[in-house]
């Protein structure tokens, strides 16, 4: 666990409690790899008789191998490199990502992903609105704006990484696509670990939570995943309804769901400030903590709640350790 | 006069969610319409300046500094000192502020703050008493240069800057000046600036600025950048302790009915009371903290970086 300077000002007692919680968390984390942690200009222990390859983050000075970045030393066969902890998002094929459309180009959409390059979502990698499987025609290309426009938030999967480093995305399943009725949160990419499930539907609250591997997290009202066959009939009904209510306001999110969305959003912000890994368990834990202590939604962003969450996390990890 | 602040990308769905939240009195971070974000004040951040303060409201971070120099009063107003306000929007806040990008915004903010602090041309309604800056009539006076720097921008810059200026002025200590009495008319008198004795600046009449942003049919206080991108118009009202209005600025492309503006003014007066009290208590706490720090000579922020196994 990497600790960093926290931006909130604490009172004296809060500072003491916070530092004690962080110390407990550090002592709980295993010390197996502590030898592998290096900071800049540390010597990396290498057997000079074996041939080895100098990877990223290393440099040979005066016959010794020094680290040029702060991180953890990794060895893969003969390659020795230093993996930084606060790196940019490093994509892998099959990652679920959440991004924002920045451009509608010829037969593709460009999506901003908090990565060095923009992701590309081809028109052919996207399901047609009427659910049919067919070749995309020029009419489809002209109607691309009916699917996604600029600034839309979309959820997609990484299909492949091109040779120049850019990402190809696809959104072929019904659970991918445009995200509405909610808010997008940004955390540092290294706080999101790859796991089996990135789509979470919290039934008790009626909320969809999508944790993108690139650090973008979507919290929103639950949307039923619809069967494409049924969509053809629904589409006709939807057209009739939308034309009549285009001037009327759409229905707003119910207040209780909105409160839950705000609470989860604030829980994620608190975890991001503290530098804790963001997973569904930790988020629901923080949420229950705020509910049990009857903390006002806005006060979750205050210094006191941050200290409480840090202490609670230390407790939780200690409990897990004992088991 | 409207300044186009950087547009935050917001999809139609997100906009709808935002507006719905404001209508239902539950904004995206859980605040009510008239609640401010958590505000943090720290004074004395620039030791070389006569007074300085750093104010953080949510994601907006600004620093204000006050430098005092000996100068000559203008011939039109020989019994008053001079105050000048400059604002700089740093490119660290937004990449578009680099080069000349932030100039328009900076000059707009500076003008609004100057109006709030110094009142009209005749000096009526000024928050700072310019006569208190006088040392010798017609000859010697204090020139105050108030500088504001925007380090991080997340909406509501004007409120943050006015709070920072108020805190910096409270932190300002002007050295006592001895002027030699006998001197000819066209000669500059000799000035002796004391190193030991200081007088604190009187800031009881300095106003605070409350910006009300109209989104849809409701007004919100302390808008984030997202909320500002959805506004139709915003009115910034500066109110002082006695409840008098010292300045009024409107931004935004949409027009407002006069009754709406009057309503906004009454809402702003109501909000400014609690804001003024909270701000004053935070400033005095920051001043007390700074004094403690000077006494014990402790280092302020320490960066603690440690490594462990990543779990």
From TrEMBL, chain A:
Species this chain originates from: Brassica napus
Start and end residues of each S1 motif domain: 92-172
InterPro entries: Exosome_RNA_bind1/RRP40/RRP4, KH_dom_type_1, KH_dom_type_1_sf, NA-bd_OB-fold, S1_domain, S1_RRP4
GO cellular component, one term: exosome (RNase complex)
Subcellular location: Nucleus
Identification of the protein by name: (rape) hypothetical protein
Keywords in alphabetical order: Exosome, Nucleus, RNA-binding, rRNA processing
GO MF annotation, one: RNA binding
Pfam families: KH_6 (PF15985), S1_RRP4 (PF21266)
Biological processes per GO annotation: rRNA processing
Family, similarity comment: Belongs to the RRP4 family.
SUPFAM superfamilies, sorted: Eukaryotic type KH-domain (KH-domain type I), Nucleic acid-binding proteins, Ribosomal L27 protein-like
TrEMBL record, chain B:
Domain Exoribonuclease phosphorolytic: 36-175, 206-269
Protein name: Exosome complex component RRP42
Presence of keyword Cytoplasm: yes
Pfam families linked: RNase_PH, RNase_PH_C
Source organism superkingdom: Eukaryota
Signal sequence bounds: none
Main location: cytoplasm
Keywords: Cytoplasm
Species, as recorded: Brassica napus
KW Cytoplasm (keyword) present: yes
Lineage, uppermost ranks: Eukaryota, Viridiplantae, Streptophyta, Embryophyta, Tracheophyta
Family of the protein in this entry: Belongs to the RNase PH family.
Location within or outside the cell: Cytoplasm; Nucleus
SUPFAM superfamilies named among the record's database cross-references: Ribonuclease PH domain 2-like, Ribosomal protein S5 domain 2-like
Alphabetical list of InterPro entries matching this protein: ExoRNase_PH_dom1 (IPR001247), ExoRNase_PH_dom2 (IPR015847), ExoRNase_PH_dom2_sf (IPR036345), Exosome_comp_Rrp42_subfam (IPR050590), PNPase/RNase_PH_dom_sf (IPR027408), Ribosomal_Su5_D2-typ_SF (IPR020568)
């Amino acid at each position: 666990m990497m600790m960093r300077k926290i931006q909130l000002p604490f009172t004296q007692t809060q500072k003491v409690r916070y530092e004690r919680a962080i110390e407990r968390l550090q002592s709980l984390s295993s010390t197996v790899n502590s030898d592998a942690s290096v900071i800049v200009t540390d010597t990396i222990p290498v057997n000079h008789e074996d041939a080895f390859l100098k990877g990223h983050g290393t440099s040979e000075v005066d016959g010794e191998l020094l680290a040029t970045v702060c991180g953890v030393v990794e060895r893969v066969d003969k390659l020795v490199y230093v993996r930084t902890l606060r790196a940019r998002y490093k994509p892998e094929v099959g990652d679920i990502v959440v991004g924002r459309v920045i451009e509608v180009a010829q037969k593709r959409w460009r999506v901003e992903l908090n990565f060095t390059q923009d992701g590309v979502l081809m028109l052919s990698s996207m399901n047609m609105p009427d659910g049919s499987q067919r070749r995309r025609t020029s009419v489809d290309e002209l109607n691309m704006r009916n699917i996604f426009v600029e600034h839309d938030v979309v959820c997609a999967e990484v299909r492949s990484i091109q040779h120049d480093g850019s990402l190809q995305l696809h959104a072929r399943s019904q659970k991918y696509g445009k995200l509405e009725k909610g808010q997008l949160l940004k955390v540092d990419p290294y706080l999101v670990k790859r796991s089996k499930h990135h789509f979470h539907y919290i039934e008790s609250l009626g909320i969809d939570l999508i944790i993108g591997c690139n650090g973008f997290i979507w919290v929103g009202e639950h949307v039923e995943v619809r069967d494409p066959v049924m969509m053809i009939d629904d589409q006709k009904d939807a057209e009739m309804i939308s034309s009549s209510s285009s001037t009327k306001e759409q229905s707003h999110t119910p207040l209780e769901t909105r409160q839950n969305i705000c609470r989860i959003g604030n829980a994620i912000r608190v975890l991001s400030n503290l530098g804790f890994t963001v997973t569904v368990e930790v988020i629901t834990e923080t949420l229950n903590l705020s509910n049990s202590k009857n903390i006002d939604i806005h006060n979750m962003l205050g210094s006191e709640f941050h200290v409480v969450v840090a202490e609670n996390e230390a407790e939780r990890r200690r409990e897990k350790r004992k088991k | 006069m409207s300044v186009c602040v950087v547009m935050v990308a917001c999809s139609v769905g997100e906009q709808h969610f935002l507006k719905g939240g404001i209508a239902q009195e539950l904004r995206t971070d859980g605040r009510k319409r008239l609640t401010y974000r958590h505000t943090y004040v720290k004074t004395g951040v620039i030791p070389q300046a006569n007074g300085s303060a750093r104010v953080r409201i949510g994601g907006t971070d600004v620093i204000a500094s006050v430098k005092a120099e000996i100068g000559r009063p203008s011939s039109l107003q020989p019994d008053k000192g001079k105050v000048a306000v400059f604002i700089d929007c740093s490119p660290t806040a937004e990449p578009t502020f680099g080069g000349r990008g932030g100039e328009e915004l900076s000059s707009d903010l500076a003008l609004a703050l100057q109006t709030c602090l110094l009142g009209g041309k005749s000096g009526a309604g000024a928050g700072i008493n310019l006569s208190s800056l006088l040392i010798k009539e017609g000859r010697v006076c204090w020139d105050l240069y108030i500088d504001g720097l925007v380090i991080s921008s997340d909406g509501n810059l004007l409120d943050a800057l006015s709070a920072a200026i108020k805190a910096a002025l409270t932190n300002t200590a002007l050295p006592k000046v001895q002027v030699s009495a006998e001197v000819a008319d066209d000669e500059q008198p000799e000035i002796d600036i004391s190193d030991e004795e200081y007088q604190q600046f009187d800031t009881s009449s300095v106003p605070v600025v409350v910006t009300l942003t109209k989104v849809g049919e409701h007004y919100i206080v302390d808008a984030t950048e997202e909320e500002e991108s959805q506004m139709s118009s915003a009115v910034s009202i500066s109110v002082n302790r006695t409840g008098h209005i010292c300045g009024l600025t409107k931004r935004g492309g949409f027009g407002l009915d006069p009754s709406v503006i009057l309503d906004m003014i009454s809402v702003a007066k109501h909000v400014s009371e609690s804001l003024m009290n909270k701000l004053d208590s935070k400033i005095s706490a920051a001043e007390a903290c700074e004094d403690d720090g000077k006494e014990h000579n402790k280092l302020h922020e320490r960066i603690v970086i440690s490594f462990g196994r990543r779990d």
